[in-house]
Structure formats: C-alpha cells, structure tokens
Amino acid sequence: MAIKKITAFAPATVANFVCGYDILGFAIEGIGDEVSVSFNQKFENTFALLSNHSELQQLPPEKNVAFEMVKQVQEAIGRTDGIHIELNKKMPLNSGLGSSSASAVAALVAANALYDNPLSTDQLLPLAMEGERLACGTAHADNVAPSLLGGIVLVKGYQPLEVVSIPVPKHWYCCVVHAHVDVPTRLARKILKTTIPLKEAVVQFGNIAGLIAGIYSGNDQLVSNSMQDVLIEPHRSLLIPYFQEMKKLALGENAIGFGISGSGPSVFALCKTEQQATQIADAIEQLLISAQIGRDVFVSRISTQGAHIL
Questions:
Q1: Is the pTM of this model over 0.85?
Q2: pLDDT at 110 over 60
C-alpha cells in the first residue's frame, strides 16, 4: 500500500504594510516554504530539513517551528501517531518576509490535511501564532494570518483574536528586495520606543485608517498618502543600508508607496503595474550591485490564495 504523503505550501508575507505595525500584512506570490508529512512506524515524530540552511541544521528538531506545529496539531486533536516531517526551506532566514511564519503555516496545513482536516482555519491561526512565539519571542499574527489566509489581512485585535480580510486591488503589484544584511527580528523589536507621543500616535492612526479606506474605495492616491510611518520606520530604517536611497528610487518612479517588509532588511514598493514594479526592482538592484551588497529580488502580485495543499 502506498504511503500517504501530504505536501503543503505557505507563501511569504509583507508584514506591517508600512504604518500597520503588527496589525497589517499581505501575502506575495512565487516564494514560500513547503512542508511534507507522512505517517511512520516509529510512534514518534521524525524530522528532515531539505535545504542547506546551516543555522537551521544546527537546531534540534524540537526547536524547529515546523516540527513543533505538527506536534501542536496532534495535541489539539488527541493523536499520538508518529509522523515524518520534511521541511523544504525555500526562503531566506531573517529576511523580513515571514520565513518562520511560512514554515509554521505550511506544517500546520499539511498535518491537518494528513488527519483529514479536523481543525478549521480559525483553529489553526492561534497555533500558528504560537509558532511565531517560538521563532521570535512574540505571538503576533501579521505574518501568519496572511500566509494562512492569503490576501491582505487586518489583525483587528488579539484579546480576543479577530482578523479581517481586506479586498485586494487586482491591478496591484509589488517588488520586494531582500538585501543580504543581517537584521534579526529580536534586535529590530528591541530598538523601538516603548512609549510614543500622542501627536505621533494621532498621525499614525490617521494613516492606518486612510490606508484601509483607500483600499476599499479604490483610491490609490489616498493609499499613497497614507503609506507613511512616523513610529517604526525612523528607527528600523537605520539598520538597513541604503534605505533612503532605495525609497527615493521607488518614489521617483511613482510607486504607490515604499517601506520595510516586516522587521527588515527586505523592503517593498507597492506599484500600479507589473512594468512599474519591474523597473523599480531593477533600479534598486543596480544600486545594491554598485554597493557590492548581495540581494534577492522578487516581482509579485499580492497572493490571494494563501497556504494550500500541493
């Protein structure tokens, strides 16, 4: 009898969406992680990493987020089978593109499917957030929610958890550039202020509201005007070489907006056409080439599919 094997894919994500720190994010196409699961005869979970990420290879399996997420599914449904887990890590680590989130979500979706989907999407999301806690110390949802659900997601609240899917403008593209510099998520969180002036908070609240209103009304100019971050970007941008130069290039090509993806070092430009996104990606890549900085460059629509079985 053939061994039942399930493979799931979960997409990379752009979290924060400039002004929506920890509450907004969207999924992108063409890049993500794959996790395969199958029952084994050992009555314990086993793990294989199908990539050459040395940092992950040094971790014991129980510290890997994909391994832990399979265990979480088993505990949630009261199963003790042995499962063999294979993580095909296709994303760069510490990129600001939701690398740990993609691994966690792909593992959850694959394990759930192996057991014929006893858990709903609403039940999987809190488990995915615990994967984020394991990976970076904070159980936030602005990466895992869009990776699981697809599209643009607003995390309306955490107590209780409430997420809202935002309609995706069909003409939007984004270019994402991952510079090969190290900006660990924990450091990017540590440098942020713990208190903010009321004046800055009011500006940020207005920008978040304007961004969402612009999406719903199809007003790209309102979206552009609202993609301003007065709280987070001024601090985190200092950790990213040539951030201001990249931003100037993107806005000079009339991008809708530009900002940091997650905690960085990746940056993204939101664009009106694929051609515009490609032009901006090429310009930023040339800047990084001249600075002798390695990079990965992606041009993508906002993915409306989210995690799924391959």
A1: yes
A2: yes
